[in-house]
Recover the amino acids of this structure.
């Protein structure tokens, strides 16, 4: 559909007001907009139902913005992989309403949209575009096994010096990997630990 390709409509999976559970803004209230569509294919993804964009109805961005403005000053666009789509129209309208725009992305597609905060969570299967490395405010690497520490360092070398660095255990492996992450951060203090605190709090 032409309107979807232009970003005037987006395959909306869900939208909800909650507490940001991960990374730099952990503990702050935010309105989440989850956009369907992702071909990165992380085997441990906890929202695989977001992958197929065709299962999520194309929704006009004006209605998405009208809903968002009711709840919060900070809007987090997530997925799926939101950069699959043109984020310029949505972020422009959010900014016109005075809202802060955050994105959580693998960076696998060209950067579109106007962002106050870019959380880059790179994946080995489809590495980020250089422009997303350069623009990232926060690098969040998911740690599933020991090899991910090497991957994290490779990714950290590609972002700016001001980018904050986080290691986050994959949820199903948190008990096994957390001691290793703690040890790693203590010996490599440029990194911080991110936890999926919303899961501990039992909120979305």
């Amino acid at each position: 559909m032409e309107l979807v390709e232009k970003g005037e409509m987006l395959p909306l999976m869900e939208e909800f007001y909650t507490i940001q559970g991960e990374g730099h803004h952990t503990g702050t209230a935010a309105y989440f907009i989850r956009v369907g569509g992702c071909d990165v294919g992380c085997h441990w993804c906890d929202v695989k139902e977001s992958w197929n964009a065709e299962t999520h109805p194309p929704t006009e961005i004006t209605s998405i913005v009208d809903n968002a403005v009711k709840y919060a000053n900070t809007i987090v666009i997530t997925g799926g992989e939101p950069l699959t789509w043109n984020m310029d129209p949505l972020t422009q309208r959010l900014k016109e309403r005075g809202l802060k725009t955050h994105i959580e992305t693998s960076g696998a597609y060209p950067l579109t949209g106007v962002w106050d905060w870019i959380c880059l969570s790179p994946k080995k299967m489809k590495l980020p575009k250089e422009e997303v490395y350069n623009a990232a405010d926060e690098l969040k690497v998911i740690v599933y096994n020991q090899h991910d520490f090497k991957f994290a360092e490779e990714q950290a070398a590609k972002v700016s010096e001001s980018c904050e660095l986080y290691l986050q255990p994959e949820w199903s492996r948190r008990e096994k990997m957390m001691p290793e992450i703690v040890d790693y951060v203590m010996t490599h203090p440029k990194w911080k630990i991110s936890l999926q605190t919303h899961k501990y709090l039992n909120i979305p």
